[in-house]
Amino acid sequence: LLGAHQQIELCNESLMLQKLPACGKSFEDMMKKVDSKKWCNLTEFIMYYDNFTQCTEREANNASCFWPNPLAEGFITGIHKQFFSNCTSEKVHWEDPPDEILVTLILIPVMLTCCMITLVVWCSKRSDIL
After folding, report:
1. Can you give the residue ranges of every domain in the chain?
2. By Cβ atoms counted within 10 A, which residue in 49, 61, 94, 115 is the most buried?
3. Does domain 13-85 have CATH number 1.10.150.510?
4. pTM for this structure?
């Protein structure tokens, strides 16, 4: 190991930033095939997005940069803002079930527990049968 010399390649950020727009352009061209009303439905373009992700990773690695990194993430975020800024997740408003259902859901386990305890106590007192 004393004679071994490892060469550490430094991340060439400028090269990576030159190459990433080609990934974005390719993704943009592919997204033109998808109706813009369906841009929030991931199943409509998952293959295009996968290709985009692989492209950004490949270009980062070719520039000796790890992936993801802050610069690549910034670029990817820009693409997200361009295509998915109108996609908002609808917040689910949780409500308690009606009282009849809630009482039933509470009472069933309580009654089963009571029945099981009764059965165990009864069986333990009747150990002569077992």
Report:
1. 13-85, 97-129
2. 49
3. yes
4. 0.61
Q: What is the DSSP string of the chain?
A: --S--PPPPPP-HHHHHHHHHHHHHHHHHHHTTS-GGGTT-GGGTHHHHHHHHHHHHHHHHHTT--SS-HHHHHHHHHHHHHHHTT--PPPP---PPPHHHHHHHHHHHHHHHHHHHHHHHHHHHTTTT-
